[in-house]
Amino acid sequence: MIFALIGLFLIALIFGPQIWVKYVLNKHNKSLPDMPGTGGELANHLLRQFGLANVKLEETKPGTDHYDPQDNAVRLSPEYFQGKSLTAVAVAAHEVGHAIQFNRNEPVSFLRKRFLGKAHLMQKIGVYLLMGIPLIAGIIRIPHVAGLMLFIGLLTLLSSVFIYMAILPEEWDASFNKALPILEKGGYVPATYMPAIRQILKACALTYVAAALADVLSLWRWLALLRYVR
Predict the structure, then answer these.
(1) Rounded to whole angstroms, how far apart are CA atoms 57 and 38?
(2) pLDDT for res 7
(3) Are 81 and 29 a contacting pair, CB within 8 Å?
(4) CB of 229 within 8 A of CB of 138?
(5) How would you list the strands of the sheet with 66-68, edge to edge?
(6) What is the pLDDT of residue 83?
(7) pLDDT at position 167, please?
(8) DSSP character for 51?
(9) Which stretch of DSSP H or E encloses residue 18?
């Protein structure tokens, strides 16, 4: 019984943040007629207001909203770029917050600027290595080689988890030191919606935590595979 409770607790710990983030973003992603503009229009306005006309504003694939420091571009998914929902406005302000961080060379942005892209690359390499284990093990039938591949893959995934956790201060700053004051003081959102905006910005800040915890679950699966290979 106690092991079952521990298992349920761990599952809730791992999946809870990711479920909550998706729930909050979806809950407030309803078009509101009293919103003065779309997420894309707000992002464009804020970039100009803060003297960031050099920052590109682009539409991107659904679910991939981000600021790209290498291309100096804010990218919003179509539903947020074109939408007039609270989520669209908050996500746009959050990503502009990142653009402000990087273009001001604020210390909080340095870690992401140097390591996040590399962490994504290492994560992909790790996944490819892990996906190739069954094929390699079936061809060469040397368990130690498959075990070595698994170990290297696990290290790459684990490094991405640490990077995600390390950049949390930057995400929090983009949400609550940049986006929230901008939306509050600028009057871009009616006051009655500000509690929801705070909730959305918290979800934006915790997106990487949710991803990191999901990676932890992935690590557990691969560790189980390692025991099988051995």
Answers:
(1) 13
(2) 62
(3) no
(4) no
(5) 56-59, 73-76, 66-68
(6) 97
(7) 84
(8) T
(9) helix 2-27
Kindly tell me if the per-residue pLDDT of 69 is higher than 70. yes
Distance set, CA 226 to CA 130, 189, 214 (Å): 10, 51, 19
- Confidence check: pLDDT of 178 > 60: yes
Collapsed DSSP state (helix, strand, coil) of residue 104? coil
Span 132-159, pLDDT tens digits:
666 666 666 666 666 666 677 677 767 7
The fraction of the chain above a pLDDT of 90, given in percent, is: 51
HSE at residue 192, side-chain half, CA atoms within 13 A, is 3
Which two tokens mark 149? 């591949």
Residue 74 pairs in a beta bridge with: 57, 67
User: How many CB atoms are located within 10 Å of the residue 114 CB?
Assistant: 10
Paired tokens of 197: 């905006």
The DSSP 8-state label assigned to residue 156 in this structure reads H
Give the angle 191-27-7 at the CA atoms, nearest 5°. Answer: 125
Pairing of strands 66-68, 73-76: antiparallel
Cα gap 140→15, rounded to integer Å: 37
d(CA 214, CA 217) in angstroms, rounded, equals: 5
Q: Which helix (H) or strand (E) holds 68?
A: strand 66-68
Residue 72 Ramachandran class (φ > 0 left, ψ -120 to 50 alpha, else beta):
left
Sign of CA dihedral 201, 207, 209, 213: positive
Q: How far is CA 172 from CA 45, 58, 95, 101, 206, in A?
A: 22, 23, 12, 12, 8
58 beta partners = 75
